[in-house]
Amino acid sequence: xxxxxxxxxxxxxxxxxxxxxxxxxxxxxxxxxxxxxxxxxxxxxxxxxxxxxxxxxxxxxxxxxxxxxxxxxxxxxxxxxxxxxxxxxxxxxxxxxxxxxxxxxxxxxxxxxxxxxxxxxxxxxxxxxxxxxxxxxxxxxxxxxxxxxxxxxxxxxxxxxxxxxxxxxxxxxxxxxxxxxxxxxxxxxxxxxxxxxxxxxxxxxxxxxxxxxxxxxxxxxxxxxxxxxxxxxxxxxxxxxxxxxxxxxxxxxxxxxxxxxxxxxxxxxxxxxxxxxxxxxxxxxxxxxxxxxxxxxxxxxxxxxxxxxxxxxxxxxxxxxxxxxxxxxxxxxxxxxxxxxxxxxxxxxxxxxxxxxxxxxxxxxxxxxxxxxxxxxxxxxxxxxxxxxxxxxx
Length: 394
Ligand code: SF4
Fold this sequence. Notes:
Layout: E1 15-21, E2 23-24, E3 36-37, H1 40-57, E4 72-79, H2 87-100, E5 103-113, H3 120-128, E6 133-139, H4 143-149, H5 155-167, E7 173-179, H6 186-199, E8 203-208, H7 216-222, H8 231-247, E9 251-254, E10 257-259, H9 266-272, E11 277-280, E12 285-287, E13 291-295, H10 299-307, E14 313-318, H11 321-332, E15 339-340, H12 341-348, H13 352-360, E16 369-372, E17 375-378, H14 380-384, H15 386-390
Parallel strand pairs: 1-4, 1-11, 2-3, 4-5, 5-6, 6-7, 7-8
Antiparallel strand pairs: 8-10, 9-10, 12-13, 13-14, 15-17, 16-17
Bound molecules: iron/sulfur cluster (SF4).
């Protein structure tokens, strides 16, 4: 390989804003996210703290670029369960973004919603406040599976919530599904998928179960209280999801994501296309091009830091151009269309093709990826075994 010395790219594209709401009704057994039990008394101090964090960005020295010099065109409120908040507080957060940052008028503004945590009145107010995309946590359409997962809602509540969102004017809805949970079968997964297709959301995120460290699932498996995960079955499930979703008119555009034409998640594309993003809230992560930061995860400590008017950092990592280049490769390859090595090389002022061939060229005969002119993409087998390739770049 020629000398590999990339330069930082120009980050001149609009950024995305992620706001984390760390409260949930109860904890799902597979959950590895930063969440805590919902206590209504915590809502107001927490939202006030996020507003203070927004304000502090204006006086945050060199970290603030590009968040005050450029503009955002996506806002994503995730969690946790954002829909558990009083709707007025969600709207306050959107308004806060609009007063502290420049937000493009046609921005994609998404809120994650869990079934049965909010109803028609809240949905109408969200739409009126400019929230134009809902991400609904469906996971399964079998009540027994939902119960085993520790989800605090039934399948029929999911359907009602979906219909209420539509009636409130949400014409861009994504649903989250979980495949590979112990006890799930291919037939039952097909039934869940059929019910999803009947509802006809614009976007589907289908995640394969991962055993996250510290999740209750880990202990249940360890003690043998639920059957072990059948990896072959999980692989079959993944293939089934891909094939049935495509047949139902959804384009697979990322390892776990499927969309109707024109309905890809603009916010998540920021992560997959090497864009900068601002993270606000407990446990949130942000990246300004040169630095990646992670906020304090525990809500009470996060609020306390902001009450002292200090930025709530748990960690700050200085990035190198090489680390960013490798991240860009890994994240870009999550997209089914892959990435253009010529464009990537130009962004980082290196020969990206030369780097790729030097690092994974020996895997060329394994059917894991294709390199067509300058476009590098994983094959469907490569998407299942992507860690084999990504391990070469971490
Ligand atoms: S709703 Fe989501 S964030 Fe909350 S406990 Fe369940 S998986 Fe975790």
